[in-house]
Amino acid sequence: MLLSERLARIINGDVADDAATREKYSRDTSIFERRPEVVVFPKDADDVVAVVRYAYEACGRGENVSVTPRSAGTDMTGGDLTDSISLVFTKYMNHVIEVGGDYAVTEPGVYYRDFEKETLAKSGKILASYPASREICAMGGIVSNNAGGELTLRYGKTNDYVRELDIVLSDGSQIVARPLSMPQLAEKEREQTFEGDIYRKLHALIDAHAAEIEAARPNVTKNSAGYTLWNVMDKERETFDLTQLFCGAQGTLGIITKEKLALVKLKEKRAMLVVFLTDIGILPEVVRRVLKFNPESFESYDDQTFSLAVKFIPQIIGHLGFFKMIALGFAFLPEVWLALTGGIPKLVLMAEFAEDTAEEALEAAKQARAELDGMAVRTKIARSEAQTAKYWTIRRESFSLLRKNLRGMFAAPFIDDIVVHPDDYPTFLPELHELVEGHRFIYTIAGHIGDGNFHIIPLEHMDNPAARAEITDLMPKVFALVAKYKGSITGEHNDGIIRTPYLPIMFGDKMCKLFAEVKNIFDPLGVLNPGKKTGGTVEDIKRSMITHT
């Protein structure tokens, strides 16, 4: 009996193994391709339990079966790809279950755009850790990757907002993960269940290696690499919180079926300081001066992105309504003139200040602008949403622009999410530039300049073996440089297929052995999304890399 037939008998949702469906779910936005044997669309948590339990029992019999969760498929690491069972949530498990005064409960298949629309309507609040892909990503990936974005500078990452997670463990049992007091932890550890076993073993591991774990904490405000063991036990609050481990684990420790997330109300009035740089050498000092005034977000994009935006303005604004499209089209005229006259800046920085009143926001932007007096930069203050829209459009659409508009070339995310402390810019950036310039590809840089998170997207001919070889040649060099500054090889996008083999560069072999122990505690048979976070190899990268554009 086929695997699809066996699964169809035990769930209420849909099971597909036709060529078209398998092809559809073989790709995400990464440089990888893995064709699942079966695609499952669960209707509810009971279906997830049934699928995981089947896989667990099959693995116990020595069969090679695993389960990989997937929501919107916008992952840039291959974290949601598998050649076994792909568990897709967006078809049925796509409901916002509850919106309270300062929280919301959602299923993993809800698109963020729909989640935010509902939370705003019912509470006037949002999940502030949304990523740049907010229009196309879903809630399962946001939590599983520990996403961050433009507002993380002020509001933090997704793990700061997770309150409870409903989890299906690798044996098919269900738990609710939430912060536990130490007495509650002791009670859990007395339970003779798989959950109790997990708490006992994990607590012992963290206690035994406390100093080593704390020393491994990256010296940055954003990190999605490895298992964040340093966040599990909070000695000040005296809590033990498994949500901090499941958040960012890419479905390797348990599968999320429901999320309870805190919401925040944003400041309503904004003003943006736009800084045009032609000399990257002064970037560290510009960032240092602007950060003194506490911007809500501090973003950037480079000249390559700028040029693409000008070239493809109709495509960028085409999805807007008629009047918005006309208004934004006129707003881009100065950028078109810059492009025509050769005045394109090397880097555009966007510092947005959000306060309770328009006057306060404008004053913060003016003070930051005054701080840059005497520096070799051009500046502009955008006071209204209409004025800031074009800058946000370019920044948010940068990766999409590359993916859709460069024929024969592929926007290849592999050094796309590095993070260092902004204080290290003066020495780090020249070293990074030297490494990347040593390769023949062109690349774009965008990202969260305020917290040191750079999205470097090389443009590659993926059908060229030499281009593919460049990827595995450059990655360890860039990651070693990041590790030298105690940064993170991924601030938001996570490890997946692409970065898992290089975690020892960042954390060292001993810490990676602890990660493997954690994986074994939660998933001793390797049921859940194998090869991500632990066990991945450079050969996995090579065998899964696309060979076409």
From TrEMBL:
Q: Which cofactor does it need?
A: FAD
Question: What InterPro entries would the database entry show?
Answer: FAD-bd_oxidored_4_C, FAD-bd_PCMH, FAD-bd_PCMH-like_sf, FAD-bd_PCMH_sub2, FAD-linked_Oxase-like_C, Oxid_FAD_bind_N, Vanillyl_alc_oxidase_C-sub2
- The UniProt entry's coiled-coil ranges are 351-378
Query: Which EC class heads this enzyme's classification?
Result: oxidoreductase
Alphabetized PROSITE patterns for the sequence? FAD_PCMH (PS51387)
Gene Ontology biological process terms in this record: lactate catabolic process
Superkingdom of origin organism: Bacteria
Transmembrane residues, as ranges?
none
Q: What is its EC number?
A: 1.1.2.4
Q: Which keywords does this chain's UniProt record carry?
A: Coiled coil, FAD, Flavoprotein, Oxidoreductase, Transit peptide
Q: What family does the database annotate?
A: Belongs to the FAD-binding oxidoreductase/transferase type 4 family.
Protein name as annotated: D-lactate dehydrogenase (cytochrome)
